[in-house]
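Re-run requested by the PI after the first attempt was lost when the workstation crashed. Everything re-entered from the original request form. Ligand of interest: zinc ion.
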Amino acid sequence: MNTRYRVTIQGIVQGVGFRPFIYQQARARRLTGFVTNTSHGVELEIEGPDPALDDFLRAIRQEAPPLSRITSIQVQPLPTEGDGEFQIRKSRAQETRSALISPDTAVCPDCLRELRDPLDRRYRYPFINCTNCGPRYTIIRDIPYDREKTTMAPFALCPACAAEYADPFNRRFHAQPNACWQCGPQVALHDQGGGRIATPDPLAETARLLQEGWIVAVKGLGGFHLAVEADREEAVRRLRARKQREEKPLALMCPDLETVRSLAWVEEEEAEALGSRERPIVLLRKKEPNPIAPSVAPGNRYFGVMLPYTPLHYLLLDQGLEALVMTSGNLSEEPICIDNDEAFERLGGIADYFLVHNRDIHLRSDDSIVQRVSGALRPLRRSRGFVPVPIFLAEPIAPVLACGAELKNTVCLTKGDRAFISQHIGDLENLETLNFFKLTIAHLKQILQIEPEVIAYDLHPDYLSTRFALEQTGIELIGVQHHFAHLAGCLAEHGLNEKVIGLSLDGSGYGTDGQIWGGEVLVGDLGSFERRGHLEYLPLPGGARAIREPWRMAVSYLYQAYGEDLFDQPLPLLKHCERSKIELLLQMIRKGINSPLTSSCGRLFDGVAALIGLKETVAYEGQAAMELEMIQGGDPEAPYAVEVVGDAGVYRILPQPIIRRVVEDLGRGISRERISRRFHLTVVEAFTRVCVRLRDDTGLEKVALGGGVFQNRTLLTEMEARLNREGFKVYSKSLVPTNDGGISLGQAVAAHYIRQNNRKGPA
Ligand code: ZN
Ligand code: ZN
Ligand code: FE
């Protein structure tokens, strides 16, 4: 007796070898029927004896191709048809439109083995790939995902590759970027002026140049990297000077896990992340001593390390290179270079040589960065390897385009129960990045077939993302407060839509009162919020300049704590800084000239870092706070006493007592390491107190954490632990960055529910 089922499978099931997998599984069990791609995913009809069918369905769940992600399987009985065999049926083009697109994926073990096998026809071929690996998102021009719609279009398959492409039993069946030495892209080495260097082996020659200390721009999957050997201090300094990147840490690439372990401590989960098909940069605690040049990550206890992810990277590192600096190929804060000619022009002043190839990158995508904190891997940048895999929401929402914030910008598009967050776009502070922002929005709308009904934007009137949103016509626009978006993103990630306490701690975001918020305790759900607590306001003297010059914040906190007596305090800062400079700043503060008020938590970290003489000016936002975290001592310490005052149902945490205790400790000769530790614990204590009071007021027991301050390992770990001890249930982000790189998700989801509330009208 035979049975027949219709099986509908949704998720990432197209362009990942799903139909051939089904075909092979059906044939192996002598089942009959067919499989086809539809607008929803993959659909098949399958007929045969029950035990074989059960085993077939088990295999779909357990043995699905590595790049697929099944979100649902529906099985429906049908009358038997008695067809003779199992077939793959052609999909109709218009029906593949809403299928999910696979992200770019690191070279798979099978391809890597062939790459290193002298008998294989693709031995040392830098663009080897198969259905289970290779470029996807970065080469797709349009959908459906077929070779003609990718940057592989100019390369006609040779007969050997075409045969693989057509054979359902081959690992390269329908592998769109399939290529070989005969028919595919090739690499070439160029000099600084763009002139091609004649060499039989560009990769070996590149390795030799790197070993001589030259800077080489290497074209990768989502853009160019700038590479130097990581143990050459002089070369690393030269790279920093030319790239105008003074202090931000540089990423490393090592040939294998063993080499990584010689530089840094690697826990099991971190090793898994390093070797995962997303191949992100993983932040790993440095081993001391280590052979890496000090300029790679100054003032930092961590290295950002990745393993090779393209065959080209493997071939390069196989030449005896132990560790390369591989930093994005751009000048300062501009977007990463992707075109060869663009690279010669824009990177000509940085790189001495260029290792390029002729497979175009359609859409740039920077390396992703993750760190393991408080029991989970957390992205600091969710980009190459992860995008465009959606975040699945608890229920379908309206199609929304969320424009993100300013720094670390990403955008988010929603469709049904899926939220698609873009790759890292960057700091929206220049025209190049703004153009990339617009391009990404247009591209994602096209390949995901989403026509948004709503645009969500940050309330900050000067953000380029906000201005872009406000220029759009004929579409509903919804502003979402920055810290509310951090909260909503955390709820969305956890599939929650109920009132919770939200701790949104970051550097800055525009408040509903026009001030600069950043140390916020909210009570809200996905559609509304109230501000129920915050750090006490104080002036931000010089506005944005105070971000680059933390000494300004230190003076502002000192003035808040001591008034005119601040000069009587025994502080290193007062010795370093000219009195006239401080007086000038005080005048600005007193008169309120260019001194907006802020409740920022990030600025409190900056201020304390400057106060204890750690960092008075910085090269990038958050650097002082980061260094304050890094110097912390490990011995047990008690927090300083905290003062929380409350009126009109809003609690305010006073910084003055904290600042006074820091100053006292300095005067008593307590080490900066100990002060830093005490300060961290104090911040945790202060916000915990506010949560406890709010629980008394509201009965709420869930706390959602969001905002860039939670990139700080100590703060996240200790805050979770402390709130758990108080009996709270704590939610933090691990699918999207807690920094502004994840804020577009919260904006998108919040905009939908705000709109729903508006439509319902006041209750
Ligand atoms: Zn492969
Ligand atoms: Zn070929
Ligand atoms: Fe933020």
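Saved to the shared folder this time. The chain has 23 helices and 31 strands.
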